Fold this sequence. Notes:
Rossmann fold; binds S-adenosylmethionine; seven-stranded mixed sheet
Amino acid sequence: MTSGEVAPLPLIPRLRAKLVRALGPTALFLKGFAKHPVMVGALVPSSRRTIDRVLSKVDWEQCRLFVEYGPGVGTFSRPVLQRMRRDARLVVIDTNAEFIGYLSRTIVDPRFSAVHASASDVEAIVAAHGFEHADYVLSGLPFTTLPPGVGQEIMAATHRVLRSGGAFLVYQYTARARALMRRWFDRIDEGYEPINIPPCVISWGWKD
Ligand SMILES: C[S@@+](CC[C@H](N)C(=O)[O-])C[C@H]1O[C@@H](n2cnc3c(N)ncnc32)[C@H](O)[C@@H]1O
């Protein structure tokens, strides 16, 4: 091989790269799960039914800043952008650098920003985008497997960052997140979506 040539990838990584390309975002999500099962917390992205259900309570006319925690490969981010006003902003926050890289490359929309950070940094991130408060915060975080104390930290920061009348929209496979939410949100609407893998507990916590 001459110095200008690039060495071919060995067979297994080459096959893996081919599979990721062929399957697209679902493969990237699976790969993310295989690498960081505790942090990702789910084998496949949320179902269309879950997305429609969770977003059904959003008043899009009143929404200027929508924040999403744990977007993964953008299963919710794209439907949120489809529903959002033209002058609104969507800021997504994920601890997985590969997911953030993928979202930044594939979602080309001036209303969209993808930030590689933890949801507990939400207040600084909202301020860095020029806002005092968020209208809605959506979470797909695996609260059951977050390190001790981080769930409460995220709940407290989310409650502070929301405007009065705003809401925290949470979907999870157990009721753990709802139990954590009760300390911060007086009014919680409850839902359940069976057509999801696995079926999903939905909570809408309102900041009155
Ligand atoms: C169950 S996946 C949700 C995927 C996607 N939203 C969906 O509906 O299919 C959980 C996501 O939370 C991210 N995550 C885990 N801990 C986090 C944290 N402290 N802050 C932000 N994102 C986090 C993971 O990297 C992963 O992308």
